[in-house]
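Encode chain A's predicted structure.
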Amino acid sequence: MEVHLFLDSLEKEFNKYSNEAIAASQKKYMRNQFEFHGLTANKRREIQNLLLKSLQINNLKKIVPLLWNKKKGIINTLHKN
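Encoded structure for chain A:
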């Protein structure tokens, strides 16, 4: 359950600090293969580190595959499993 709380919180915070101009630039740099929130690396690290510490996430082995396979809307379906 803590994994899904982390993912929800992470997505909420990323959306809160997203920047469309940076996202467009990042997407262009990666040849339009991926979607981006438009966060600088420093801001992304700050957000994820605060959440990892506050939610006491220790098992990244559960989180990494979920994030790697994440597509728009897939997180909502994962909550049901």
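The chain has one domain: 2-78.
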